[in-house]
Amino acid sequence: MNAAALGLHRIGYEVRSYFRAPDAVFFTFLFPVIMLALFSVAFSGSPDIQAGPGVSVDYATYYLPGLVATALLLSGTQSLGVDIAGERSDGTLKRLGGTPLPVLSYFVGKIGMVLVTVTAQVVLLLLIAALVFGVDLPTDGGAWARFAGIVLLGVATSCVLGIAISALPREGRRATATIVPIVLVLQFISGVYLPFTQLPDWLQTVAGVFPLRWMASGMRSVFLPEGFASAEPGGAWHLGLGTLVLAAWLVLGVVACLLTFRWNRRDA
After folding, report:
1. pLDDT tens-digit profile of 93-112?
2. Of which family is this protein a member (predicted)?
3. Which residues are within 8 A (CB) of 248 and not within 5 positions of it... i.e. 6 or more apart?
């Protein structure tokens, strides 16, 4: 079998392994859905969020974009980072390194798994938002094209960062404690749970360096009325700048992967 065929075979294996791990399913696949339900129910009796005269949305609609962006980061950076660190620590990578499996096929399997799970996760999130909480999804083809572009670039960036960050934990048992807090902090400073412009200016600047801030604002440009652009820094979505930041992280992530990934542990 060539590298591509082996990679496709690995996708099926990785997807099955993913859904057999209850912690991965709960903390990555179902987490955005649970948070959407939590915020929607908790604030169901609160007034709609205003972005100006005559421009308002309910809480389910407001939180949906950030949680879609979070799904990309959880499935890519967090899931891959923890998973690969564990495989390195328990000797799985070392054993794979002794087989004819190419590194490319291994990564095709991992990234393919993320694409499959992200697709299922986002579809489930949108269906629940629309059918259970009455969120009005976009009807404009241009908005959905922008959505697809953000998803693809966001998944690619999240995956390479997940592979790169997997090199941080010295032991697999420390992977969750090392990687999850980083992802959690990014969620709170990137406009997922709190209105971004309510954060201190210095914290907005820090968040603006990282991908999640731009994935979240990009998703807001898809799911929120245009009037909500006034609530963004500078009063605009800044989609071009966001694309550049994500592309820069994608390149940096690829370089980091090439420099740090090994079949064996660094201290082996």
Report:
1. 989 888 888 889 999 999 99
2. Belongs to the ABC-2 integral membrane protein family.
3. none
pTM here?
0.93
Range of the domain at 119: 3-37+58-260
Note whether residue 107 is domain-resident.
Answer: yes
200-240 tens-digit pLDDT: 999 999 999 999 999 999 999 999 999 999 989 999 999 99
Structure tokens that stand for 240 in this block: 């071009």
Domain count, the chain: 1
By CB atoms closer than 10 A (0-12, 13-18, 19+), residue 69 is buried
Find all residues with CB under 8 Å of 152, minimum gap 6, and list them. Answer: none
Domain membership flag for residue 68? yes
- Alpha helix segments (H runs only) across the chain: 3-19, 22-24, 31-42, 59-73, 79-89, 92-97, 103-131, 141-165, 175-189, 201-207, 211-223, 239-260
The secondary structure of residue 192, as a DSSP letter, is S
Is position 79 within any domain?
Answer: yes
For residue 127, being part of any structural domain is answered with yes
